[in-house]
Fold Sulfotransferase domain-containing protein.
Amino acid sequence: VNRIAMWSGPRNISTALMRSFENRPDCVVSDEPFYSHYLHKTGIDHPMRDEVIESGNTDWDSIAIELTGPIPKGKLIWYQKHMAQHNLPGCDLGWVQKLTNCILIRHPKDVMLSYLEKYEIDSEDQLGYNQQLDLFKLLTDLDIPLLVIDAADILINPGVMLRLICEKLGIPFFEEMLSWPAGIRANDGIWGKHWYGSVEVSTGFQPYIQKSGNLQPEYQDMYYACLESYKELYSHRIQRGIEL
């Protein structure tokens, strides 16, 4: 394993997991390298849209070439935090065959309640479940192994799950993965000012707490569509997690 692609959706523990891997002595990380491309192509008006686009590369093919190229800073492992919803229709995903792919899932009720605290939801495509399932099917059809990881499993028992993830990836586990210094990182995307408030003050994984509250009726159809994709992926998770 040299390059790990961790495919998450929004409002997951993706940034905390990036912190965990970044704290390894043998690892360099990248934070959502396709975000600028995604905003540039879709026209979606995310917070800090212009700054995000200006801060990154908007050319899909050149980003993919870079992500499959030499590992930066002389490290052994390149951990790439990706958002599945950034995989837009028509974008070539052939390059992912050169990486070890993981899909990080979280129950859609928790995701949607958290997302709505930060931004509006107009389409299930914003949440990444369809794109995660598409990626799962693409790799499975090619007989390329991948890991499906449920966020709740990590939060319930970080030590056990991180050891399991490392074992499945064929890399050593480091105790440093369980805690990290608070604060921002040079590798954080510029959008962290809007999205990363909780992880910036964190020093480790927070205990699992299911989100309280209920989704408004207008989100029910979207929720059940996401839930269907989530359940299929959840059935392939590497350790038993919360019951549906």
